[in-house]
Write a sequence for this structure.
């Protein structure tokens, strides 16, 4: 009796080779992203000003994901404010916390496509600015989000991309929190 082929790999050699190539490409991308995260983490540890951290975050994301837009929103006394953007050209940089509440609640579970956010002025502005992916981003007790532009090819962001954005966002959050704590001292 012949053993059944493994369900993890296709039965035909050509299909198996193609699957191995796809897995190798994903692994290569993951290794590249991990190296970028390590490099950026080192740079973030050496950066002591908020603007430098924000610029490093957006530049890295734009280069890694090959997008031309990125925006960072944080809670301010007057609402959710765009505190840094590159290429997005936001025309409505402040949203009341009531207007942003649905989007921020949706981000509690992690990265979301802009299209999956609840309808409202914030989602409309993100769509107008051609931002496609949002992740939660908070500093201290201030809530916020990081928005990444769509790709010129309109290709969706895969799980590896989402993990990369979330990981880099967490590193930048830590660096910004350290800067704020240092300033308080």
């Amino acid at each position: 009796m012949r053993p059944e082929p493994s369900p993890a790999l296709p039965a035909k050699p050509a299909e198996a080779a193609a699957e191995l190539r796809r897995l190798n490409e994903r692994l290569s991308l993951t290794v590249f992203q991990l190296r970028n995260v390590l490099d950026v983490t080192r740079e973030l540890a050496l950066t002591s000003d908020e603007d430098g951290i924000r610029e490093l975050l957006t530049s890295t994301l734009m280069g890694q994901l090959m997008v031309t837009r990125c925006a960072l929103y944080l809670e301010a006394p007057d609402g959710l404010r765009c505190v840094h953007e590159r290429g997005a050209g936001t025309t409505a940089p402040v949203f009341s916390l009531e207007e942003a509440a649905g989007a921020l609640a949706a981000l509690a579970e992690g990265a979301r496509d802009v299209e999956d956010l609840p309808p409202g002025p914030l989602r409309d502005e993100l769509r107008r600015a051609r931002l496609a992916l949002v992740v939660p981003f908070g500093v201290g007790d201030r809530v916020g989000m990081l928005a990444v532009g769509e790709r010129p090819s309109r290709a969706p962001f895969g799980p590896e991309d989402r993990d990369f954005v979330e990981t880099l966002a967490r590193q930048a959050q830590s660096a910004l929190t350290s800067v704020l704590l240092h300033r308080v001292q």
